[in-house]
Amino acid sequence: MIKVSQLKKEFIQGQEKTQVLKGVDLYIEEGEFVAIMGPSGSGKSTLLQLLGGLDVPTNGEIQIDQHSINQMKEKERTIFRRKKLGFVFQNYQLLPNLTVEENIAFPLHADGKLTNENSKWIHELIDSVGLTGLNRKRANLLSGGQQQRVAIARALVNNPTVLLADEPTGNLDRARAEEILGLLSMFHRNHKQTIVMVTHDIFAAGFADRIILFRDGIIDQVISRKDGDYAKYLANFMA
């Protein structure tokens, strides 16, 4: 589903160049749930921005669903993002004065695809993320956990090929975080949703099929649930 080849990204400030990604090779299968971890400045968030077409690499190639997004023009990338990708952010990025239903429907409304059939899908999503009865409640009156549930439903409303999540539990306490991770796992399990999640939290990473550890702009280590040492690694990390 995702293939990254020799991906490099550098930022230039004045006369100074900072190389954030230093030749990353990565393959993510369809229906896989992958967690990306690493210290601040390791390149993990930059990678997510590039996968989402929100920035372009200095060198290398990104293929998502056999589309080379780094070779697209800006307008093409925008259309690709709307059709193929869903985003969940740490700070939710909801429209505060819109209702739960209106926030979830917003991507469809922006694309002119809001139909009666899609309205039914929106109501199904509201129920599936545990917000039954809150359709008409404004986003700014919701708790943090409820706002993140709305953000997940909004990210899924277009049936994205890939869901990208940037620290989706970073603003939540452990109980609310576990609820959100349970929701992501449910969509991954029941709908074979491909998920790429950046997180600092090893508890959150433990819900993934694979953990990819970044350090100094490269992949330092990959731990798979299929490996015998997965549980041992998590236990040692959390000790």
UniProtKB/TrEMBL annotation:
Taxonomy, superkingdom: Bacteria
GO molecular function: ATP binding
Domain ABC transporter: 2-235
InterPro entries to which the protein is assigned, alphabetical: AAA+_ATPase, ABC_transporter-like_ATP-bd, ABC_transporter-like_CS, MacB-like_ATP-bd, P-loop_NTPase
SMART domains on file: AAA (SM00382)
Pfam families reported in the protein's UniProt record: ABC_tran
Similarity section: Belongs to the ABC transporter superfamily.
Name of the protein: ABC transporter ATP-binding protein
